[in-house]
Design goal:
The complex is a heterodimer. Chain A is an alpha/beta fold. Chain A has 18 helices and 13 strands. In chain A, helix 7 runs parallel beside helix 10. The chains are: A alpha/beta, B alpha/beta. The complex binds iron/sulfur cluster.
Chain lengths: 454, 519
C-alpha cells in the first residue's frame, strides 16, 4: 500500500499565503469570480451544527448567505440561523465592538450554544475592529468558547478561507477537550461537509469495517467532538487541499499520520478505506476492510451493469473546484464516461498532475472561467453532458446541455459505492430525459434546423 | 432509461432508515450536554410570551435577516438596460453572492463581474483593479455599457469612482465615448431597494447628461404622447408582461425605464447570449421628453423620482405595487390622468371578471388572519389586497421599512391604511425587525396564513402556519416569478394562490367528517 502519500514539489496547501508554486490563483478583475474567503471560512465551519455562527459586518455578507447551503444535520440546527451584527454607517464611524459584544452576549444567553464562531468581513477588517480581543473577553466572561475567524473577503479566494477556518480550529478548538475514556479512537474526516448527506454514507461504510470516526471536520459535526480531534489515530483529508495544512500541523503537533483521499468512485473509496486501516496499523481491520470492499465492489458492479451499458462512450465536460476534478474523473471513468474537458481554475499543480494521470491526451484543460469558455469546450469536444456547479447550471439549460450539479448545492449524495450508483442514475436520467429531443426540434411550422445538432 | 431499474433512495427517505437513525442516536453523546427535557424546556420557552418580550428588546444582533444589501439591487437595475454589464467594485465574494442569489430566484444566469479587490487594493486603493477590470470585462463580455456599483469595502477605503473611470479613459483603456454609469452603494446603508434606486438614477442621469439633450416634458409629436414606466426592484418577470398588456390596451406609447424581464425570462434557443432585452440606451435621453412618469414602487424609487421630477421637470405618479382591485384601479386612473386617455373597456371587463372570482372565494378568505413580510411597496399592496378581501393582517414586518416618500414614512402609511378598515384593527407594523421577531409573533399570536419570501419558511414551519410565497427571494419554488401579481390578472393569480392554500389546509386537516368534494 505504498506510497502513503506524495510529498512532492507542490504539496503545500492550496491558498497558502506565500505560495512557492502556483497556489490557488487569484481571480482577474473584471471576471465573474467565485466566492470570497469569508464565504470559504463559513463553508468550512457552518457544518458544526450545534454552534452559533455570527457574522460581524453589514447585512450584506450574512443576509446574502444564510441558509443557502445543503449541509445536512442529524440533530441540532443552530447553525442554520443567520446571525449578524448588521453594522450601519454610524457603527462604521464609531466602531461596532459594543454591538459585537452585545450580540455575543445575547446569543450566549438565549441559545446557550457550546461555542460561538465570530466571522470578520471586509468592512470590520478594514475598520480595524479588534475581533480577537472582543472574543477573548467574552469567552472569559461567559465561560464559553468564542472563536474569532479572521477571514475577511478581500484576503482572497474561497479556498484561502477554508484554510483560515482550519487555522482557527487549530488555534482555538482542537486539543481543548478530551473524549470519554471508553471512546474508541479512529479517524478524523477532514474537509467532508455532509452535503446531501454524503458523510452519513461514508460513516456507515467505515462502521461496517469497524473503523471509528473520531471527529468530523466538519460535516454534521458537534463542537465537542472537534475539541478532541487530537486524539485520533489517523487523519483523512477528504477532497479539500485547503485543509491539508490542518492535517500537516496535526501530524507535527500530535503525531497523527494523514493521507489524502476521496470517496468518489469505487476505486477511490476502496483505496481510502484501505489506507485508513493501514495507517491504523491493525491487521485484523485491514482484513475486514478487504472483505468489505470486495463484497461492496462486486455487488456494485452487478447493480451498475444496466447503467454502464447506457453510459459507455458518453462524453462529459467537468467544471468544478480543485480536488473534486480528479476524484470525480475516477468515478466517471468507472462508469465508462469519458471526460473530454476539465476545469483547472481552482486546482493546484498537484491536482493538475492527478488529473493528467486520469484523463487521455485529448482532454482539454479549461484554466479559467466564464460560462462561455465552458460552453465552447462542450461544443468543440462534442460532449454529451456538463458536470459543474449550480451557478453554471442555468447557462447550460439555456444552451440545452444535459447537466449535473456536483458542487455544494447538490441535493444528491455521490460518495461511496452507493453514491456511485446514484451518480450513474443521475447521469442516465439527465442524458435520457425526453426534454432534450423536444428542445432540439424546432416548432413544426418552423423548418429551420436548430442551432446545434447533437 | 425510461424507468427506474433500481430503487436508489434519495436522501430524505434513505436517512429515515434504522441504521441511520441509530447513527444519529449515537451522535447525541457529542452534543451540548443538555438533557432532552432541558432542550424541550428551552424550546418551549422560546415560544413563550415572556421570551417574545425579550426578543423584541433585543438591540444588537440580527437573527435571520430579511433584506439584502444595496449592490444586489444595483445589479438588478443594471440588467434592466440593453447590453449592460453589471460591474461590482469590491472584493469578489459579494458579486458571487449576488449572482447566485438572483439566479436562484429567477432560475436564470446572471451576468455580473467584480473587480476582485484584495489586500493590496485595501491598502493602495482599488484603482488598478477597476481599470484592469474594465479592460478585461469589456474584452470578455463585449457590453455596450458598463454599470459600476460599489460594495462596502470600496466605500470604506473611499475609492473615487468618478476619478478612476476618468483615469481609465486617460489611459486609453476605454474610449472617451464609451458609456460607464456608476453609483455608490455601501452595504452598511439602506438595502437592496435603495441600491436599485441608486443605480437606476445613476444610469438615467448619466445617459441623459452625456446626450446633451434638454428635457422638454411633453414636447414633440413623437415623444410627447409617451409615458415612462418604472417597476423598480421587481422580482416578477410576469409583472412586466402584465404592465405591457395594460399599456397596450390603453394604446399609449411608453418606455419602461429599467426592464430586466428579458434577462430573466429568455427562451431556450440552444444558445446563451449574455444580454437579453432591456431598455435601449438611446431611449433614455428621449424619456426626458415624455409626458410623465409612472412609478410602481414609490418608496423604492424615491431618489429616481426626485431626479425625474426635478431635473426632467416631469409629472410623476408614484404608486406602490398595484395589487388587488383597488390597487389596480389606482394604477389605471394614474395612467389615464397622465396620458389623458380613457380606461379601455377591455380592462373594465377584466376587472369585473376578477371581482367575480373574488366573490366566489370570499367565504374562505373572510376573517383569515395573516402575517406579512416584504419590501415596503409590496407590503402596501398586500395590505390593501388583504383588507379588500376580508382577510385580517395581524403581523407585518418590513426589515427595510425605514424609508419615506414625500415625508410620509412607510410605517405611517401602512398604519393609516390599516386604521381605515375594520379588518386592520389588530395589525401591528414593525420596521427594522427580522424573521426571528416574526417567529415570536407567529408563535404567540397565531395566524392562519403567512405571506412572504422563502426565508420565512423556517418561522412558518415552527409555528405550523402555511406559507404563501410572495416577494423576493423565492428559492424553493419554481416559476412563481413568471406569473404576474399586479393588475387584475395578477390579483387573480394572487387570489388563487392564497385561496387554494387555504383549501388545501382544509383537506389536510379535516377531521374526517368534512372531507368534501365541492367547495
Ligand atoms: S467580499 Fe467581503 S463584503 Fe463581500 S461578502 Fe465577502 S466578506 Fe462580505
Amino acid at each position: 500500500m505504498d506510497p502513503v502519500r506524495h510529498d512532492e514539489f507542490d504539496s503545500q496547501a492550496c491558498g497558502s499565503i506565500a505560495p512557492k508554486v502556483k497556489a490557488c490563483p487569484r481571480p482577474k478583475p473584471g471576471e465573474a469570480a467565485g466566492g470570497c474567503s469569508f464565504d470559504g471560512a463559513q463553508i468550512t465551519l457552518l457544518p458544526i451544527m450545534d454552534a452559533a455562527h455570527l457574522v460581524h459586518g453589514p447585512v450584506a455578507c450574512a443576509g446574502n448567505s444564510w441558509e443557502s447551503r445543503g449541509t445536512l444535520s442529524s440533530g441540532p440546527s443552530l447553525s442554520q440561523y443567520g446571525f449578524a451584527t448588521d453594522l450601519t454607517d454610524s457603527d462604521i464611524i464609531f466602531g461596532g465592538e459594543k454591538k459585537l459584544k452585545d450580540s455575543i452576549d445575547y446569543i450566549a444567553g438565549r441559545f446557550a450554544p457550546p461555542a460561538i464562531f465570530v466571522y470578520s468581513t471586509c468592512v470590520t477588517a478594514l475598520t480595524g475592529e479588534d475581533l480577537d480581543s472582543v472574543c477573548k473577553e467574552a469567552a472569559e466572561r461567559l465561560g464559553l468558547p468564542v472563536i474569532p475567524v479572521n477571514s475577511p473577503g478581500f484576503v482572497g479566494s474561497k479556498n484561502l478561507g477554508n484554510r483560515l477556518a482550519g487555522e482557527a480550529l487549530l488555534q482555538y478548538v482542537i486539543g481543548t477537550g478530551e473524549p470519554e475514556p471508553e471512546t474508541v479512537m479512529g479517524v478524523n474526516l477532514i474537509g467532508e461537509y455532509n452535503i446531501a448527506g454524503e458523510m452519513w454514507d461514508i460513516e456507515r461504510l467505515m462502521g461496517s469495517a469497524g473503523i471509528a470516526v473520531t471527529s468530523r471536520i466538519t460535516g454534521d459535526a458537534r463542537y465537542k467532538e472537534i475539541t478532541w480531534a487530537h486524539r485520533a489515530k489517523v487523519n483523512m483529508v477528504v477532497c479539500s487541499r485547503a485543509l491539508l495544512g490542518l492535517a500537516r500541523e496535526m501530524e507535527g503537533r500530535y503525531g497523527i499520520p494523514f493521507f489524502e483521499g476521496s470517496f468518489y468512485g469505487a476505486k477511490e473509496t476502496t483505496y481510502s478505506l484501505r489506507q485508513m486501516a493501514y495507517l491504523m496499523n491493525d491487521r485484523e481491520m485491514e482484513r475486514r476492510v478487504d472483505r468489505l470492499t470486495e463484497r461492496e465492489e462486486s455487488r456494485l458492479s452487478q447493480e451498475l451493469r444496466p447503467y454502464r451499458k447506457l453510459l459507455k462512450g458518453k462524453r462529459a465536460v467537468l467544471y468544478t473546484g480543485g480536488v473534486k476534478s480528479w476524484s470525480v474523473i475516477s468515478a466517471l471513468k468507472e462508469l465508462g464516461v469519458q471526460v473530454v474537458g476539465v476545469g483547472t481554475n481552482k486546482s493546484t499543480q498537484d491536482d493538475v498532475r492527478r488529473i493528467a494521470d486520469r484523463v487521455g491526451d485529448d482532454t482539454e484543460y479549461i484554466p479559467e472561467g466564464g460560462a462561455s469558455r465552458i460552453i465552447k469546450t462542450v461544443r468543440e469536444r462534442k460532449a454529451d453532458i456538463m458536470i459543474a456547479g449550480g451557478r453554471n447550471m442555468y447557462v447550460a439549460m439555456k444552451e440545452q446541455i444535459p447537466f449535473i450539479d456536483i458542487n455544494q448545492e447538490r441535493h444528491k449524495a455521490y460518495a461511496g459505492y452507493e453514491g456511485l450508483l446514484r451518480l450513474a442514475k443521475e447521469l442516465a436520467y439527465s442524458l435520457g430525459n425526453p426534454i432534450w429531443k423536444l428542445a432540439a426540434s424546432p416548432a413544426p411550422w418552423d423548418k429551420e434546423a436548430p442551432p446545434y445538432d447533437r | 432509461m425510461s424507468r427506474d431499474e433500481l430503487n436508489i433512495k434519495d436522501n430524505t427517505s434513505l436517512f429515515k432508515e434504522a441504521r441511520y437513525l441509530q447513527q444519529r442516536e449515537n451522535k447525541k453523546q457529542f452534543e451540548a450536554p443538555c438533557s432532552e427535557q432541558e432542550t424541550a424546556e428551552a424550546l418551549a420557552y422560546s415560544k413563550s410570551a415572556e421570551y417574545m418580550e425579550k426578543n423584541f428588546s433585543r438591540q444588537n444582533v440580527v437573527i435571520n435577516p430579511h433584506k439584502a444589501c444595496q449592490p444586489l439591487g444595483s445589479v438588478m437595475a443594471a440588467l434592466g438596460f440593453e447590453k449592460t454589464l453589471p460591474f461590482v467594485h469590491g472584493s469578489q465574494g459579494c458579486n458571487a453572492y449576488f449572482r447566485s442569489h438572483l439566479s436562484r430566484h429567477f432560475k436564470e444566469p446572471t451576468p455580473s463581474v467584480s473587480t476582485s479587490m484584495t489586500e493590496d487594493a485595501a491598502v493602495f486603493g482599488g484603482m488598478n483593479n477597476l481599470i484592469d477590470g474594465l479592460e478585461n470585462s469589456i474584452a470578455l463580455y463585449k457590453p455596450e455599457m458598463v454599470a459600476i456599483c460599489t460594495t462596502c469595502m470600496a466605500e470604506v477605503i473611499g475609492d473615487d469612482l468618478n476619478a478612476f473611470i476618468g483615469n481609465a479613459r486617460v489611459k486609453g483603456v476605454i474610449s472617451e465615448e464609451y458609456p460607464v454609469a456608476y453609483c455608490n452603494t455601501p452595504s452598511f446603508v439602506g438595502s437592496h431597494i435603495t441600491g436599485y434606486d441608486a443605480m437606476l438614477k445613476g444610469i438615467l442621469s448619466y445617459l441623459y447628461t452625456r446626450s446633451g439633450i434638454e428635457s422638454k416634458p411633453g414636447s414633440g409629436a413623437e415623444s410627447g404622447e409617451k409615458l415612462n414606466v418604472m417597476l423598480g426592484f421587481e422580482p416578477y418577470t410576469g409583472n412586466f408582461a402584465e404592465m405591457r398588456k395594460i399599456l397596450a390596451a390603453f394604446d399609449t406609447k411608453y418606455t419602461i425605464l429599467g426592464d430586466h424581464s428579458g434577462n430573466y425570462d429568455s427562451p431556450a434557443t440552444g444558445e446563451y447570449e449574455y444580454y437579453y432585452g432591456g431598455t435601449k440606451l438611446e431611449e433614455v435621453p428621449q424619456a426626458a421628453n415624455a409626458l410623465g412618469t409612472l412609478s410602481l414602487q414609490k418608496y423604492t424609487l424615491k431618489k429616481t423620482q426626485e431626479y425625474i421630477s426635478g431635473t426632467w421637470n416631469q409629472q410623476i405618479a408614484a404608486l406602490s405595487t398595484p395589487l388587488g382591485i383597488t390597487g389596480t384601479d389606482k394604477l389605471l386612473e394614474a395612467i389615464s390622468e397622465l396620458t389623458g386617455l380613457p380606461v379601455p373597456a377591455m380592462l373594465t371587463e377584466e376587472r369585473g371578471r376578477v371581482v367575480d372570482a373574488l366573490m366566489d372565494s370570499h367565504p374562505y378568505l373572510h376573517g383569515k388572519r395573516v402575517a406579512l413580510v416584504g419590501d415596503p411597496d409590496l407590503l402596501i399592496g398586500l395590505i390593501g389586497f388583504c383588507l379588500e378581501t376580508g382577510m385580517e393582517p395581524v403581523h407585518i414586518i418590513c426589515s427595510n421599512g425605514d424609508v419615506d416618500y414625500n415625508e410620509v414614512k412607510f410605517k405611517e402609511e401602512a398604519e393609516a391604511l390599516l386604521a381605515a378598515s375594520p379588518y386592520g384593527s389588530e395589525a401591528t407594523v414593525h420596521v427594522g425587525r427580522d424573521l426571528w421577531h416574526m417567529r415570536s409573533l407567529l408563535l404567540n399570536d397565531k395566524v392562519d396564513l403567512a405571506i412572504g419570501s422563502s426565508h420565512l419558511k423556517f418561522a412558518a414551519k415552527d409555528a405550523e402556519v402555511p406559507l404563501v410565497r410572495v416577494g423576493f427571494p423565492i428559492f424553493d419554488r419554481h416559476h412563481m416569478h413568471r406569473y404576474p401579481i399586479i393588475g387584475y390578472q395578477g390579483t387573480l393569480n394572487l387570489l388563487s394562490l392564497i385561496v387554494n392554500t387555504i383549501l388545501q389546509q382544509l383537506d389536510d386537516h379535516n377531521s374526517g367528517f368534512n372531507f368534501e368534494l365541492v367547495r
